[in-house]
Design brief:
0% strand, globular
């Protein structure tokens, strides 16, 4: 072994948090090994656990995500927004900061569902809008409204709250590392960040990140494989899926080893340029005036119905509830929240990594407002064009809506109807690949950081190990779900994301507790006693609550 190789191995041994690394690795590698031993057992176990979690915690996910959105909006307009993460100047320009946050945070899902999601709501509107008939002109607006709701504020909120919490406590407290459990510093105590509870949180963060990001990579990988078959007739079986994911794993591992500045930042900037070009090209080629009218009305509907859409449960199958409505909500809204929550440890850690020197208001604004401003036009233009084309018989998405074809084929059906459709499809394939790479390298960097106890620049060996694990998990989920089915991918996201709903909620409470004590309460006076009697309360005199009667005598 050369001196350089020995140095890399020594660096890896010295940096890892043995407990978090071993348990995180054993959990994920154990799932991979179980797949090769008995794929049917893994698939059955995922399905059973998914059903149990949905039945017990669907309401909790809806309520927690809604409260986090409200709190972040308060941070943007309230007095706590001026609090700074650390005391240094920001490392990146605002545009690069925004591009990295958006590309690494959740843009892979935006690309996958952009041409597809509104079609399902057009065919089967949310039961919340009971008077809207599927397939009608009115359903077109409701479909885009529901899509905007799913991809604007709420999903982004859970990433942002974790990013602010991790960054604030890591940069503003002494000896607090940059890791997921640090978000709970005021609750568990800074002296207990190496204790058992913090270790459990960090191990869950590793497992949730692998499951959540592998879900996204599975979606994007299946879209890539489908595009090859749809456009060029290149059919791939399970071996082909493994080859494609291996190729992409090599790409994102290379980008990750280059680091944030040379790899992730540059690729994120390229992604955003191509993303904007494809979005506005669709807007121009598509039904431009209709999309403006549709988007305006759908955006207004999302704002006016935001609270009811956030907390709609169908009242559950128990009592007089509507089981069909609850099933619809579980299949869409709860799935999306769980998927976002499974990303929250990785996305939050990565946001904290790039947010040093920025104010709480700036991070909250970028996380839920600026990113929503990019997402809303994409789903309006691309999703709106798909719905319009299907409604008017210009494109046929019937097989996708019926489940006979996978959702990943929708983009290719749509762009096939455009002038120079091959160019649009090629751009779409490139965007799919680059977002795959950006999401994967930033998430693998985050997992590497988690397993080192908070080191901002983990060793190359650590990064490569988790890159391989992530790629293998994505391939397994794709094979289990099949290239035409997202069912197993969705179930994996719910399983890994549900526990982190409660971690995100506790992170929000930790911020409220610390901001209130350090920078002053907002709703109550600082001396207000919430429970019990005030130690400063004077005992009442025998003369009554007004106190003793003063005497004129000296």
């Amino acid at each position: 072994m050369s001196g350089a190789e020995k140095g890399m191995v020594d660096e890896f041994r010295e940096e890892i948090d043995t407990t978090v690394f071993l348990f995180g690795a054993l959990l994920t590698v154990g799932v991979i090994a179980a797949f090769f031993i008995s794929p049917s057992t893994v698939e059955s176990g995922i399905s059973t656990l998914n059903d149990q979690l949905l039945g017990a915690f669907n309401w909790a996910l809806l309520l927690i995500v809604f409260l986090i959105v409200v709190f972040l909006l308060f941070l943007i307009i309230g007095p706590w927004g001026s609090i700074r993460l650390g005391d240094e100047s920001p490392e990146y320009s605002f545009l690069s900061f925004f591009a990295m946050l958006y590309s690494a945070g959740f843009a892979a899902g935006v690309v996958f569902w952009g041409p597809t999601e509104a079609l399902f709501y057009y065919d089967s509107p949310s039961p919340l809008f009971g008077g809207v008939e599927g397939g009608s002109a009115e359903a077109m607006t409701i479909a885009i409204q529901q899509t905007l709701f799913h991809w604007a504020l709420p999903q982004l909120a859970v990433f942002t709250i974790m990013g602010i919490a991790i960054g604030y406590f890591a940069y503003n407290y002494d000896n607090v590392p940059l890791r997921v459990s640090s978000a709970l510093t005021p609750i568990i105590g800074a002296e207990n960040l190496d204790g058992p509870f913090a270790k459990v949180v960090d191990i869950l963060a590793v497992f949730a990140t692998i499951g959540g990001v592998a879900t996204s990579l599975g979606f994007i990988g299946s879209q890539f494989v489908t595009g090859l078959e749809y456009q060029w007739g290149i059919s791939m079986g399970n071996i082909g899926i493994l080859l494609v994911v291996t190729m992409m794993t090599l790409l994102f591992t290379t980008s990750m080893v280059l680091g944030v500045n040379k790899g992730i930042r540059r690729l994120s900037n390229f992604n955003m340029v191509l993303f904007v070009l494809l979005m506005f090209a669709t807007f121009i080629v598509g039904p431009t005036l209709f999309l403006i009218l549709l988007g305006t009305q759908a955006f207004g509907g999302m704002i006016s119905d935001f609270v009811s859409m956030s907390l709609f449960t169908g009242a559950g199958p128990m009592g007089a509830g509507n089981p069909e409505a609850t099933s619809w909500m579980n299949a869409w809204t709860v799935f999306y929240w769980a998927w976002a929550l499974s990303w929250s440890p990785f996305a939050g850690l990565f946001i904290a990594r790039i947010s040093k020197g920025r104010t709480v208001r700036e991070v909250a604004f970028t996380g839920i407002v600026a990113t929503s401003a990019a997402t809303i036009p994409w789903f309006t233009f691309v999703g709106g064009t798909s719905v319009w084309a299907h409604h008017n018989g210009i494109a046929d998405f019937g097989a996708v809506i019926a489940g006979e074809q996978g959702a990943e084929v929708s983009g290719f059906i749509l762009f096939e109807t455009f002038p120079m459709g091959s160019i649009f499809m090629l751009a779409f394939m490139i965007l799919v690949t680059t977002f795959f790479v950006t999401s994967a390298d930033s998430s693998t960097l985050a997992v590497s950081m988690m397993t080192t106890g908070g080191k901002a620049r983990p060793s190359t060996i650590n990064r490569i190990f988790w890159g391989v694990v992530l790629g293998m998990t994505a391939a397994i989920l794709m094979i289990l779900g099949g290239t035409g089915s997202a069912n197993t991918l969705q179930q994996a996201a719910i399983i890994t994301g549900t526990p982190f709903a409660f971690v995100c909620f506790l992170s929000m409470l930790a911020l409220i507790k610390d901001f209130g004590s350090e920078y002053g309460r907002v709703l109550l006076q600082d001396e207000t006693v919430l429970i019990g009697s005030s130690s400063q309360t004077e005992p009442e005199s025998p003369a009554g609550p007004s106190g003793p009667v003063e005497s004129d005598d000296d």
